[in-house]
Write a structure and sequence with these properties.
By secondary structure, this protein is an alpha/beta fold. The protein is about 30% helix and about 25% strand. It is globular and about 105 Å long.
Length: about 475
């Protein structure tokens, strides 16, 4: 009898020992809101989707880092932003991919936190080839109508710096999107969104993809995970919960949802969603975990996309320190270990590679970074003041503004222009086949122009000389016009 009681006590103890951690883990599943994708994750893990064997096909690894960049706009914030940019550019010196390309960063700058000085700082980083700027927005209690109007105002503001607008003439805005508070398509509360047709509105405005996810602790995380897929909007909220996977030789229809990795980290016993935050430090084992759970276009698993996210201002200890170098080193070793090439790409370039895979393109992804969407204008023109109307190509430039403020306009990789400065209200440049280009400038002060080759002006050039292989024009404001 005593023996039976002992056996019963042992059995009860075993049940308790098993049930307590099981109950604890179950509570964590609901605490972090992973219950709608984690069971499928277990199935896919057992099925071998995330096994080492699946990585034998990998030839190219595309690494994307997106920053919910939120420095604020008071003087203290502005000073911090300037310091952050300087420290970042110093910290990433020497970090390059297998093509010698700089570490690429995508700043998702919030329209609701807008600050001109911060944008000038970020624009300089884009101009110097450190990455690109995209659209971030915390908004709430909106309707389809109010959201559309506010979005239009936001895009115009970004465009006035040369951001979210591709090079070329008569072009429409283009931008990637991250929703503040993870509340895309009214997926959490009206306080943080309110717009059930948000996806349609974003697409019509020029948004090419959403990069909000993956994330934890919110019902906004879609049930579809570790995928690049297309969502179709409806009158219901969270229309992006499921969709059609991006597939090789299939032109995707809908709004692209581009996700980061979702998994369970057995080393740290936590859920992994590719977050680099103040309290989510980089550790060497994470890069391997990211690759195992990386996204790819269905039918083209040899191209892998690792997308991680950060709040770079609050996570300065990670982004501006040694951890970033450790991560870059580990990614390089990881790629080499699999016989693959490492690419640092922006969100626009990652989108282009997905579209290239859908089109059945072959070859090296490095040659396809501009496959669909051309680079933004602010990669080639750096403005010290905003312009209300702006377009740029190597053959035609048009800039117009209404305020009389001293402006410096720097050009990169332009066949003729280097820099123009003065109180410029408008600038029009036109290439002429077989002849020197013509230029017309309206200004309220003397204008200085640095160029590589001669430019035609109708009025007399007050001073013209050469210095360091540059032709320098200094022209009085009442004599600046163009020669037709």
């Amino acid at each position: 009898m005593l023996r039976k009681k002992n056996l019963l006590l042992i059995l009860i103890a075993l049940v308790v020992l098993i049930s307590i951690p099981a109950a604890y883990f179950a509570s964590k599943i609901y605490q972090y809101n992973v219950q709608h994708w984690f069971p499928q994750y277990i199935i896919e893990t057992i099925d071998g989707r995330y096994s080492e064997d699946r990585l034998s096909q990998v030839e190219h690894i595309m690494f994307i880092i997106v920053d919910h960049h939120e420095p604020g706009c008071n003087q203290k914030d502005i000073d911090f932003s300037k310091n952050w940019v300087e420290r970042y550019s110093e910290n990433v010196q020497g970090i390059t991919d297998d093509y010698g390309r700089k570490f690429q960063y995508t700043w998702f700058y919030p329209w609701d936190h807008r600050c001109e000085v911060v944008m000038y700082n970020l624009n300089s980083m884009v101009f110097d080839d450190y990455g690109e700027i995209e659209f971030h927005w915390h908004h709430g209690n909106d309707t389809n109508e109010s959201f559309t109007a506010k979005l239009d105002d936001g895009i115009k503001w970004f465009n006035s710096f040369g951001a979210l607008r591709p090079v070329g003439e008569s072009v429409k805005p283009q931008f990637a999107f991250i929703h503040g508070n993870w509340a895309l398509d009214n997926s959490t509360t009206e306080k943080h969104c309110g717009v059930n047709r948000e996806i349609d509105i974003l697409q019509r405005a020029g948004s090419y993809a959403d990069f909000t996810f993956s994330t934890l602790s919110t019902m906004a995380q879609p049930a579809m995970f570790n995928r690049i897929y297309y969502a179709i909007d409806s009158d219901s909220n969270k229309s992006y919960d499921t969709g059609e996977e991006a597939s090789k030789n299939v032109q995707g229809a809908g709004y692209m949802i581009f996700q980061g990795p979702s998994s369970f980290d057995p080393t740290d016993l936590r859920f992994e969603v590719g977050a680099l935050e103040k309290k989510s430090h980089y550790k060497p084992h994470r890069s391997d975990l990211w690759l195992r759970h990386s996204s790819f276009v269905k039918g083209k698993p040899e191209w892998r996309f690792i997308k991680v996210h950060t709040h770079g201002i609050t996570a300065s200890n990670v982004i501006l320190g040694k951890e970033l170098h450790q991560m870059a080193s580990d990614l390089s070793k990881l790629a080499k270990g699999h016989g693959a090439k490492l690419h640092y790409v922006t969100t626009r370039e990652a989108y282009n590679l997905v579209k290239a895979a859908e089109a059945g393109a072959s070859g090296d992804p490095h040659d396809l970074l501009d496959f669909n969407l051309l680079p933004p204008l602010n990669k080639f023109v750096n403005l010290s003041q905003r312009f209300e109307d702006i377009s740029y190509s190597k053959d035609h430039i048009y800039l117009q503004r209404s305020e009389h403020r001293y402006t410096t306009i720097k050009f990169k990789s332009h066949p003729v222009l280097i820099e123009v400065s003065g109180e410029i209200l408008s600038l029009s440049y036109q290439a002429n086949d077989g002849h020197s280009p013509s230029m017309q400038i309206t200004a309220t002060s003397t204008v200085t122009i640095k160029a590589k080759d001669p430019i035609n002006f109708l009025a007399q050039v007050v001073r013209e000389n050469e210095k360091n292989n540059e032709i320098i024009y200094t022209i009085h404001r009442d004599k600046v016009t163009n020669r037709r």
